[in-house]
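hiii so um. not sure if this is the right channel but i have a protein structure encoded as tokens and i wanna go backwards to a sequence. like what aa goes where. can anyone help
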């Protein structure tokens, strides 16, 4: 068969994501702090965007606009208030109450300064002590290899490869560092860390030293009676040793933070006012965007590449504001739907959380499931029962005996409550917890499911929760 060149026409459809669409999708999944950074970046890069210094009033007629009219008004006036003010239920309530609400959710801790880093704190002490220049160089290498818990993660050979020093010099500097504040820092094992603290505090009892040196694993697994027999002491005397050990810190580095603390800033506030729930989008710190009138006027006389540049930046500014408008509208509608589905949670707390999936909310607000997934990612809502991520309200279902369903998060909350109220000397086993859940909720839950939920919440097994004293 001969080879030949041939032209052929083919008609096909394909989905092309424009840069504008990609930007809109990106804005949906950004957290509130990331959104603020993005808007500030656009303000610096796009000359057509400007920050309004005054808050424009929104008339009642703007609420009656159709969506197409609202978009035209947005491009023409580019007023930030249009896409923030419309999606707030504050108009139902008094203005005085609305002004108070956002301040109630503000965290005082957000104004605190960050803690000093562990390395900086130790370095400061070393330079105030009589360390020589050579010892300071060794100490800096040691501090650079201390983890966040305060333990040295490098061997003597590795430290020697980084600094010209003998093993005796390194051990001497390490020993001095271990006696700085916090005591026990730079230890290589938990035993070494506790022994250094005991030496500094003057705890020299041979039984206590032996418990720390050889029997930490036995203490961890609650093997108290064999230890009492071995040391020929009573259980009360063993308890006094344990009480003394509990005054020591096995992880001395955890009280220091190497990075700035990050606090969650809620994207939405939900308050109960009478019989209704009020939804307020968090506008704190969000710039109110508008078109720069100077560049709008300058565009009229522009031509050539200058006009193309102006048109591109104007379209980019208008699209950004439209995307922000859509983001706020979508966020409000999703939270409004969640409040409808999970009203029992907002009324009584986490034990009344119902099973919910993304598809149910997507059908309720007539949007795609992927859109709901993006808008609930890294978004937080302040409720009467605390701050929760929007993903928290979506949980799987467990069947009840009467055919109804209960949310898995409600079951977890009940398990946590039951364990908190248990007798610590006779903790509840997973099987017993399953039986009590069957009595309270009439839900058939297997022991392994209880164990899975318990492990997910970081709660140890009954044998490790048992207290002998």
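sure thing!! here u go:
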């Amino acid at each position: 068969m001969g080879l030949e060149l041939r032209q052929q026409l083919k008609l096909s459809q394909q989905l092309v994501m424009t840069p504008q669409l990609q930007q809109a999708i990106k804005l949906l999944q950004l957290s509130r702090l990331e959104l603020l950074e993005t808007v500030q970046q656009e303000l610096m890069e796009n000359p057509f965007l400007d920050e309004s210094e005054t808050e424009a009033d929104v008339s009642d007629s703007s609420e009656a606009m159709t969506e197409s009219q609202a978009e035209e008004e947005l491009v023409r006036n580019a007023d930030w208030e249009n896409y923030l003010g419309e999606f707030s239920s504050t108009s139902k309530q008094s203005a005085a109450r609305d002004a108070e609400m956002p301040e109630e959710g503000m965290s005082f801790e957000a104004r605190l300064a960050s803690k000093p880093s562990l390395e900086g704190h130790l370095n400061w002490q070393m330079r105030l002590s009589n360390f020589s220049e050579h010892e300071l160089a060794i100490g800096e290498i040691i501090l650079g290899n201390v983890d966040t818990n305060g333990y040295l993660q490098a061997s003597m050979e590795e430290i020697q490869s980084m600094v010209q020093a003998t093993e005796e010099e390194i051990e001497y500097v390490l020993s001095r560092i271990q006696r700085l504040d916090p005591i026990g820092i730079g230890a290589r094992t938990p035993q070494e860390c506790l022994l250094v603290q005991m030496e500094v505090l003057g705890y020299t009892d041979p039984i206590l030293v032996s418990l720390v040196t050889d029997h930490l694993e036995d203490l961890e697994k609650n093997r108290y009676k064999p230890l009492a027999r071995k040391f020929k002491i009573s259980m009360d005397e063993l308890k006094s040793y344990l009480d003394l050990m509990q005054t020591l810190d096995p992880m001395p580095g955890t009280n220091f933070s190497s990075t700035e603390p990050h606090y969650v800033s809620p994207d939405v506030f939900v308050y109960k006012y009478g019989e209704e729930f009020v939804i307020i989008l968090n506008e704190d710190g969000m710039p109110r965007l508008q078109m720069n009138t100077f560049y709008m006027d300058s565009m009229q006389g522009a031509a050539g590449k200058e006009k193309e540049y102006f048109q591109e930046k104007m379209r980019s500014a208008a699209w950004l504001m439209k995307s922000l408008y859509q983001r706020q509208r979508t966020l409000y509608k999703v939270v409004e739907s969640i409040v409808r589905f999970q009203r029992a949670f907002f009324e009584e707390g986490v034990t009344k959380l119902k099973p919910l999936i993304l598809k149910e909310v997507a059908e309720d607000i007539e949007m795609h499931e992927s859109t709901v997934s993006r808008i609930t990612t890294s978004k937080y809502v302040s409720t009467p029962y605390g701050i929760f991520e929007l993903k928290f309200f979506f949980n799987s279902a467990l069947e009840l005996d009467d055919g109804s369903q209960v949310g898995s998060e409600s079951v977890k909350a009940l398990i946590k409550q039951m364990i908190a109220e248990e007798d610590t000397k006779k903790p509840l086993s997973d099987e017993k917890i399953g039986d009590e859940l069957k009595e309270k909720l009439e839900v058939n839950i297997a022991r392994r499911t209880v164990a899975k939920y318990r492990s997910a919440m970081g709660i140890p097994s009954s044998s490790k929760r048992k207290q002998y004293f």
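oh and The longest helix spans residues 305-341.
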